[in-house]
C-alpha cells in the first residue's frame, strides 16, 4: 500500500491506475442533470441518514448522500469523489429529483450582497 | 426558491449562504499557497471537463476527435459563521479558459490578483479581466525571496492601475498575511459598492 499523494510511477495500483469507470459512464451517458443548475458553491446537504440502494442509484449517488451528512459545496463533492464537476451535477440532479439531498443556490441572482455580508466576512477573517 | 420537499426536521437550522472570493494571477505565483494558508482544510482540487476546446486557439487539425479538455481549480473553505461559508477559488492558470472564469466570477465578492515582481506581466490578463467585469480587486505582491523589492507606488504605476485599487505586499505562505489581503479586499469591495451606489443615485 502507498500513502495517498505519494508518487508511484512504477506501481499502478489503486487511484494511480486512473478511474475504473469513466465519468461519462457514471452518469450513464447523460451530460446534463435532470433538474437544477448547481453552481460550484451551491451547498448540498443530505435529507436522510443514508440512501438505500435502489434502481437508478449507483454507488456514486450513495457516496454523495454519505458525504453530504455534513454540508458540502458542489465543488467539494466533486473533489472528494474525484469526479468532474459536470458528472457531479448530473448525479446531484438525480438525488434532488428523489428528494435525497437539499440544495441551496448561492445568492448570485439577487444582485449585489448587502453590506452586512462584507462586515461578517471581515469580522470572521479577523477572528480566524 | 422553494426547499419544501425535504425530510429535515422543522426546527433544523436553515442552510447557510455560500460566498466566494477568487485568487488570480500568473502560473506559479502562489495562488494555491494562499488558498491553503487561510483555508480550514487543505486545498481541494476540482476538475471541469470541457467538451468544446478553445476554437481558434487550439490547433485541432489531425485530432478532430479530441473534443474534451480538463480545467483544474484549487479551492479552500472558511466557515465564517453558522450561516455564512466562504470559498476561495484559485482561478485556472491558462488564460484561454475565460468561460471558466466567467462561471467563477459570477457572484464573486471580489478577487485577489497575486503578482510576482519578476514577472509582473503575468498578472495583466487577470487585471484586465476584473477591470472589464467590474469585479472589485486588490493586487497583492507576493514577496519571493531573491526578488528585488519595489515600492508599492512603482508597482501601481507599472500596472497602470486605477489609483483606488489597493496594492499591498504579502507572503502567501503566511496565514496572517493572507488574511490581511482578504480583509483589505473586502474593505475595498465595500467602498467600491458604496461609491457605485452614490454615483447611481447622482445620475
Structural account:
Chain A has 128 residues and is mainly alpha-helical. Chain A has helices spanning 23-26, 59-67, 74-81, 85-97, 115-127, and strands at residues 43-46, 72-73, 101-104. Chain A has one domain (14-127). Helix content of chain A is 37%, strand content 8%. In chain A, strands 2-1-3 form a three-stranded antiparallel β-sheet. Chain B has a single domain (17-202), classed as P-loop containing nucleotide triphosphate hydrolases (Rossmann fold, 3-Layer(aba) Sandwich). Chain B is globular and about 40 Å long. Mean pLDDT of chain B is 84; it is low at 1-11 and 53-60.
Descriptive tags:
heterodimer; A: 128 residues; mainly alpha; 3-stranded antiparallel beta sheet; 37% helix; globular; B: 203 residues; alpha/beta; Rossmann fold; 7-stranded mixed beta sheet; 7 strands; disordered N terminus
Topology of this protein?
The complex is a heterodimer of chains A (128) and B (203).
Chain A: H1 23-26, E1 43-46, H2 59-67, E2 72-73, H3 74-81, H4 85-97, E3 101-104, H5 115-127
Helix pairs in contact in A: 2-4, 3-4
Chain B: E1 17-25, H1 31-38, E2 44-50, E3 69-81, E4 84-90, H2 98-105, E5 110-115, H3 124-133, E6 137-142, H4 152-158, E7 167-170, H5 175-202
Parallel strand pairs in B: 1-4, 1-5, 5-6, 6-7
Antiparallel strand pairs in B: 2-3, 3-4
Helix pairs in contact in B: 1-5
Give a summary of the structure in a few sentences.
Chain A is mainly α and 128 residues long. Chain A has five helices and three strands, in the order αβαβααβα.
The portion of residues assigned to helices of chain B is 25-40%
Q: Estimate what percentage of residues of chain A fall within beta strands.
A: 5-15%
The rounded distance between the terminal residues' Cα atoms of chain B is 33 Å
CATH topology of chain B: Rossmann fold
CATH architecture of chain B: 3-Layer(aba) Sandwich
Any idea what the radius of gyration of chain A is?
A: 18 Å
Query: Which CATH top level class of chain B fits?
Result: Alpha Beta
Average pLDDT number of chain B: 84
Kindly state the percentage of residues in helix of chain A.
25-40%
Integer tally of domains of chain A: 1
Low-confidence runs of chain B (pLDDT<50, min 5 residues)? 1-11, 53-60
The Cα radius of gyration of chain B reads: 19 Å
Q: For the terminal residues of chain A, how far apart are their CA atoms?
A: 37 Å
Strand adjacency order, main sheet of chain B: 2-3-4-1-5-6-7
> Helices and strands of chain B: which structural class?
alpha/beta
Indicate the multimeric state. heterodimer
Report the order of strands and helices of chain B.
EHEEEHEHEHEH
- Provide the low-confidence segments of chain A as ranges: none
**What is the number of E strands of chain A?**
3
Amino acid at each position: 500500500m502507498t500513502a495517498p499523494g505519494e508518487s508511484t510511477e512504477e506501481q499502478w495500483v489503486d487511484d494511480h491506475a486512473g478511474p475504473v469507470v469513466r465519468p461519462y459512464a457514471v452518469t450513464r451517458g447523460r451530460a446534463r442533470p435532470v433538474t437544477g443548475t448547481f453552481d460550484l458553491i451551491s451547498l448540498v446537504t443530505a435529507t436522510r441518514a443514508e440512501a438505500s440502494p435502489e434502481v437508478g442509484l449507483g454507488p456514486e449517488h450513495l457516496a454523495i448522500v454519505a458525504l453530504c451528512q455534513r454540508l458540502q459545496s458542489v465543488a467539494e463533492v466533486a473533489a472528494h469523489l474525484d469526479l468532474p464537476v459536470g458528472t457531479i451535477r448530473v448525479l446531484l440532479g438525480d438525488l434532488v429529483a428523489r428528494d435525497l439531498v437539499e440544495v441551496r443556490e448561492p445568492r448570485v441572482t439577487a444582485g449585489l450582497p448587502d453590506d452586512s455580508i462584507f462586515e461578517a466576512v471581515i469580522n470572521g477573517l479577523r477572528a480566524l | 426558491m422553494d426547499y419544501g420537499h425535504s425530510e429535515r426536521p422543522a426546527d433544523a437550522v436553515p442552510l447557510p449562504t455560500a460566498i466566494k472570493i477568487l485568487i488570480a494571477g500568473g502560473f506559479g505565483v502562489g495562488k494555491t499557497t494562499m488558498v491553503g494558508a487561510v483555508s480550514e482544510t487543505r486545498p481541494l482540487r476540482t476538475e471541469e471537463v470541457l467538451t468544446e476546446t478553445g476554437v481558434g486557439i487550439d490547433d485541432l487539425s489531425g485530432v478532430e476527435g479530441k473534443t474534451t479538455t480538463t480545467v483544474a481549480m484549487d479551492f479552500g473553505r472558511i466557515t465564517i459563521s453558522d450561516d455564512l461559508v466562504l470559498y476561495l477559488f484559485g482561478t485556472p492558470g491558462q488564460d484561454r479558459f475565460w468561460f471558466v472564469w466567467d462561471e467563477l466570477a459570477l457572484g464573486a465578492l471580489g478577487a485577489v490578483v497575486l503578482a510576482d515582481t519578476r514577472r509582473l506581466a503575468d498578472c495583466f490578463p487577470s487585471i484586465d479581466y476584473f477591470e472589464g467585469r467590474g469585479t472589485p480587486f486588490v493586487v497583492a505582491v507576493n514577496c519571493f525571496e531573491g526578488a528585488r523589492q519595489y515600492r508599492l507606488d512603482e508597482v501601481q504605476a507599472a500596472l497602470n492601475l486605477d489609483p483606488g485599487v489597493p496594492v499591498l505586499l504579502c507572503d502567501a505562505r503566511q496565514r496572517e498575511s493572507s488574511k490581511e489581503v482578504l480583509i483589505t479586499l473586502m474593505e475595498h469591495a465595500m467602498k467600491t459598492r458604496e461609491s457605485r451606489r452614490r454615483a447611481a443615485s447622482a445620475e
